Each structure stands twice: as C-alpha cells, then as structure tokens.
C-alpha cells in the first residue's frame, strides 16, 4: 500500500520525537501552557535543568572553550547540556529537523580522551557545540528542506563546512527546521510543521533559518549556521533579536550543501553564523576563513581574515526607506533612535537616497520583491550584519501614525493586505501595525551593510555602532 505524504510526515515527526531521551522530555506538570507565549525563562525557572547544565548553556564561546581546553569542564558534559536544552526547545517551539545526540556524545568523549592523552585540543573549536540548518549535509542524516519526498534519503557525503567544523573540533548535535525549499520568511513545511518564536509563540521565528533563530534565542545553541539567498539569515535573526553575518559569496564554503533551487546561480546562496553576541559571530568567521576552506571548495576565495581598524568616528549612510515600501513603525522608531544616539556620539550621518533600489526590485521575481530590504543586498552580494538595536516594539508608541504615504504601487498592495491602504499615495490614520499589541516587547533589529567582501569591516563598524547605542557586543 502506497503511503500518503501525511503518513510519511507523521512517521518522520514521530521518529524525531522518539530520538529525544525520556529523561529530556518535559513532564506534564511543568509543561508551559499554550497561553504562555514567552518560554525563554523555562530553563531557568522550571527546575528541569541542573545548575551545571544552566552554567554550560549560558556561557559564551570563549568561556566554554577555555574551560574545556583547561580540562575544568568535560566536552561530554557540555554536549549533553546543550543537547538537552535543544530537545526542550524543540518540545516548545518545534525547531529541530534532525538530532545527533548519541553521535555528539560519542564524539565529545573522543575529544575528552584526546585532550587527556595529548594535552592539546584538536582544533580551535575543540568541544564547542554547533547547530546547523537542515540543508547542511551530514552523512547518514536526512536533509529534507521540508520536502516530504526527501524523507528517508540520508546524505552520503558531508557539506564542506561540516568537514571544516569537524576538523576544527566542533560538536554537531542538531539540525534545524526550515520552510519548504528554504524560500519563505517563516519556517513551516509539510514534513515538520511550523517553528514558532520562543519569545512569543504566536509569532514566527522567521525564515528560512528560523529553526536556528528559535534555538539560539532559547539558549539551546551558542553558535548556529544558517544560509541566506534573500534574507534567510537576517530576517530570522531580526525576529528573535540575535546577531548574524550575511557574507559575500566565496568567503565561507558552500560546496555540497543541499539546495531547494539547485542550479540557480544568478544570486548565490551563502552561509553564515548566528549567535547571541557579535564576538561569537566574529569568532566563527575568523576561524572558518583561516582554515583555508578554498582548498576544499573551489568557489571559496583565497582571502585570509584581515583585521581592520575603522576608527572611532564613522561616516554612516542611512536609508530611511528604500523608496518602495514604508518600514513598520517600530523599525522607523529604532532607526531614528539609532541616528540620534550615533550623532550624539560624534558620528557623521548622511541621508542616503535609494536611487537604484527600484532597479534592483525589477530584477527580483514575483513575491520575492517583498524582501527588498534584504534581497537587494543579495543581488549586490554585499556583506551585511543584522543586530539588535536595543529598541523593543511598544503597543502605545507604535500603534498609529498620521500622514504616512505609500511610496509605490507595491507599497499600496502590501498595506492593503494589512488593511492600511487601498491605493498609492493615499493617507490613513492607522498607518501603524495591523495589531501593535501582538508584537509588544519584541526586539527590533537593524542592518549594517558594507561593500562586497568586506565582512571584517562590517563587523568592525557594527561594533562601533553598538557602542554608540549602548548595546552589548559580548
């Protein structure tokens, strides 16, 4: 009898649930009710985690590595703590697609034994748990990309980045959920269903790297790797208020990753780190680039990491809007706040007219135009950082504005879908969010963009900007 796609998906979901050890399954009496939207405090408040598990999973990358390499912590204990926290996050947000818990613990034991015998770590990431988006192939594991037809088709080779991370000593313990074909700005598919935001489970964690975004925001990962072809790193990072770097194509290896659009090379997909601190983003970038990945991936450029000093005073161009679609009220408020703070800190601000954005949008197809604030930089292949602004959506401040005009027919169409506007150039009192209360308290992120192959500069400038905004970088 032929199985339906529903049967296949149900079996895959059951197998994923069964891969979680019984002792890591949330007891009924402490399971947060569906009405509890923010579940990020569960690890701390539930009593389900030991003090050591909380210590390991709240530590930053430098501390984790220092403690493991000094033999104060065991890699196996750190791996188990992050695996448990990831399993709990999945039960609350549906963020995972594959688990590698036994493999991760076995590798952690190997790493501990190696360190004990030799006194040396095998690489700079020795013992560091790293989570991966679903499309990174790992031998023996599915990379479904949400397609039910790819269930039960395990990879026979590793993605090059996987080999780079393993050689550096990383522990790979989970893969995370994506939208079908990785081409939607939220993470939902017929195989695993929908991933939700741990900060507010009525909201999306974004896409296409939304499983990573949810897991990192919950503390189930200290460092994850996603991909970006139109905003798939920056959108989910913005949804949960974490950091990410969208590099130019060729800085990080992409060979042997699975694609939902194989053969499409007009705009190349890139992969990049996602983490809770800017320092952790730079740590990944520096170590991957300095591993000389161009020796494994012919499309990777032979450019070592280049430290850059951007100075203490920056000249920053500000795009208030792209001339096509009006940003939402929280974003407008965050951008205004950032400009004021940076000017107070002595930085020069230049209003940047988006004269070429319409031309870029004309190159994008169909509904893909709706990610113009990220997609345009994929077309240009610019380096970009998404970072938390320190501003949060506010139901009172962001509820309504008057005199806001639509910028284009596309803007009118988008706003009409939200019941704001009906035609281009019209004005309406409720030019705020469709329901400002629904996103009250959510972090608002901004994007800093540098030119092509200027990842070092983008990160250095972001560091200076964050200092001006009073936002932590570590």
Automatic annotation (TrEMBL):
InterPro entries: Amidase_CS (IPR020556), Amidase_dom (IPR023631), AS_sf (IPR036928)
Gene Ontology MF annotations: amidase activity
EC number from the UniProt entry: 3.5.1.4
The entry's keywords: Hydrolase
Coiled coil location: none
Top class in the EC scheme: hydrolase
Catalytic activity, as annotated: a monocarboxylic acid amide + H2O = a monocarboxylate + NH4(+)
Gene3D superfamilies in UniProt: Amidase signature (AS) domain
Domain Amidase, residue spans: 78-363
Family as reported in the entry's similarity comment: Belongs to the amidase family.
Protein name listed in UniProt: amidase
UniProt organism field: Aureobasidium pullulans
Lineage: Eukaryota, Fungi, Dikarya, Ascomycota, Pezizomycotina
């Amino acid at each position: 009898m032929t199985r339906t796609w529903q049967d296949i998906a149900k079996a895959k979901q059951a197998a994923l649930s069964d891969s979680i050890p019984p002792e890591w399954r949330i007891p009924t009496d402490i399971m947060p009710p569906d009405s509890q939207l923010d579940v990020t405090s569960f690890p701390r408040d539930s009593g389900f985690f030991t003090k050591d598990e909380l210590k390991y999973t709240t530590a930053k990358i430098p501390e984790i590595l220092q403690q493991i390499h000094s033999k104060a912590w065991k890699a196996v204990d750190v791996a188990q703590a992050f695996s448990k926290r990831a399993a709990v996050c999945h039960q609350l947000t549906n963020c995972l697609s594959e688990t590698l818990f036994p493999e991760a613990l076995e590798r952690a034991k190997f790493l501990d034994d190696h360190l004990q015998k030799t006194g040396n770590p095998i690489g700079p990431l020795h013992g560091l748990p790293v989570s991966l988006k679903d499309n990174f192939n790992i031998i023996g594991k599915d990379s479904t990309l949400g397609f039910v037809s790819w269930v039960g088709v395990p990879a026979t080779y590793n993605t090059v980045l996987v080999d780079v991370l393993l050689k550096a000593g990383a522990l790979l313990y989970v893969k995370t959920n994506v939208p079908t074909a990785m081409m939607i700005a939220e993470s939902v598919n017929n195989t695993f269903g929908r991933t939700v935001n741990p900060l507010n489970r009525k909201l999306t964690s974004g896409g296409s790297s939304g499983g990573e975004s949810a897991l990192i925001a919950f503390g189930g990962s200290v460092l994850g790797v996603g991909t970006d072809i139109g905003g798939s790193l920056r959108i989910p990072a913005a949804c949960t208020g974490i950091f990410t770097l969208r590099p130019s194509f060729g800085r990080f290896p992409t060979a042997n990753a699975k694609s939902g659009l194989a053969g499409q090379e007009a705009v190349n997909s890139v992969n990049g780190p996602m983490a809770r601190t800017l320092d952790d983003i730079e740590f990944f970038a520096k170590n991957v680039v300095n591993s000389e990945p161009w020796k494994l991936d012919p499309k990777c450029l032979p450019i070592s990491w280049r430290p850059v000093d951007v100075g203490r005073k920056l000249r920053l161009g500000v795009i208030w809007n792209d001339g096509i679609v009006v940003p939402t009220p929280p974003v407008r408020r965050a951008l205004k706040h950032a400009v004021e703070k940076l000017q107070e800190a002595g930085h020069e601000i230049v209003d940047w007219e988006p004269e070429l954005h319409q031309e870029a949008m004309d190159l994008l197809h169909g509904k893909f135009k709706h990610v113009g604030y990220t997609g345009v930089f994929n077309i240009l292949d610019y380096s970009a950082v998404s970072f938390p602004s320190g501003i949060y959506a506010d139901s009172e401040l962001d509820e309504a504005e008057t005199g806001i005009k639509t910028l284009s027919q596309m803007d009118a169409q988008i706003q009409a879908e939200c019941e704001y506007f009906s035609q281009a150039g019209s004005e309406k009192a409720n030019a705020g969010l469709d329901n400002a209360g629904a996103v009250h308290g959510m972090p608002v992120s901004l994007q800093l963009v540098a030119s092509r192959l200027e990842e070092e500069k983008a990160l250095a400038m972001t560091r200076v900007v964050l200092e001006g905004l009073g936002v932590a970088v570590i």
